[in-house]
Amino acid sequence: MSITHKEIASIRDEYSRFSLTEADVVADPIVQFHDWFKQALMAEVLEPNAMALSTINNDGFPVSRIVLLKDIKPSGFSFFTNYESNKGKELLVNNKVSLLFFWAELQRQVRLEGMVEKLPAEESDEYFGSRPRGSRIGAIASSQSSKLVSREVLENRVAQVTKEYEGVEEIPRPSYWGGYQVKPVRVEFWQGRSSRLHDRLVYTLENEDWIINRIAP
Question: Is 196 one of the annotated active-site residues of the chain?
Fold first, then answer.
């Protein structure tokens, strides 16, 4: 069944659940994010830690994918991946990224721009050790972003690694896998409002101070 452009164009929802004023937010955007994140958890938002990570590839194109937020610290936002994946290679060349969270149930989104740096090895070790066994084996078995002749090749590699670590409880983190932290320089909190007159408050880091401005929807 095909769908017409009119049917696509007519898809809309009226945002009217909440508002966002300057009096509603705190001075630090990471503290403010933490507050909104707790509200997302309470609202039982589907995977509230899912975020679109955008990097820049060698051709100058932005590349986005969904990754999972794994920690919020006063210094930034953490995620984990294969350092030899496409995004890992892109981050070696350009450490400027953007993150996007969208919580449809609350009619909210958070956009941030910042610089990425690798987490200390001990933090990556700690998180890797906390992952389910299958995820640890998968991280070792998968050469992320490389071409696969077939699914069978991957499954055979997983079987091989599984056998290799049979009876071994502490599976070591491979050197090519670990964490990054995004240190924000700009954060926008977006609250959907009726008639598309959304509330948008933007934090910008200037001389180590956060400046808050409202911008037009």
Answer: yes
